[in-house]
Amino acid sequence: MTSLAHLPRPAAxxxxxxxxxxxxxxxxxxxxxxxxxxGPRHLPVPHIELVTRIREAFTERGYEVxxxxxxxxxDDARLxxxxxxxxxxxxxxxxxxxxxxxxxxxxxxxxxxALGAQAQxxxxxxxxxxxxxxxxxxxxx
Length: 141
What we know:
Elements: H1 12-16, E1 21-24, H2 26-30, H3 47-60, E2 63-73, E3 78-87, E4 98-108, E5 116-126, E6 129-139
Antiparallel strand pairs: 1-2, 2-3, 3-4, 4-5, 5-6
């Protein structure tokens, strides 16, 4: 195992926000239109619809969103987000250990990239050491 404790941990805002993007709330996402289709096979989906369905899917599977952050870029066409999850029923993902689960997602109504999501379980074994296990959840083209 490799210790990652020596690496600096950026503030969550720094992970999602850069010069070409801005942090947004769920209320702001709800006001953003999906945009016009750019062809017969392109069907833009409002960001809020995607986020709502992802949240509902985790709720149905026994998880609650403890914290979430979103940012948009390129005239609000691209969405990036992180969701920190906690179990509502049954044992925690890392039962008996300190840690949690986070999900990152991306979505582009301008066809810049495919919808993607990635989960990461983080286990803290001591104050100076932690390890991460990643699982690729979905990606469609």
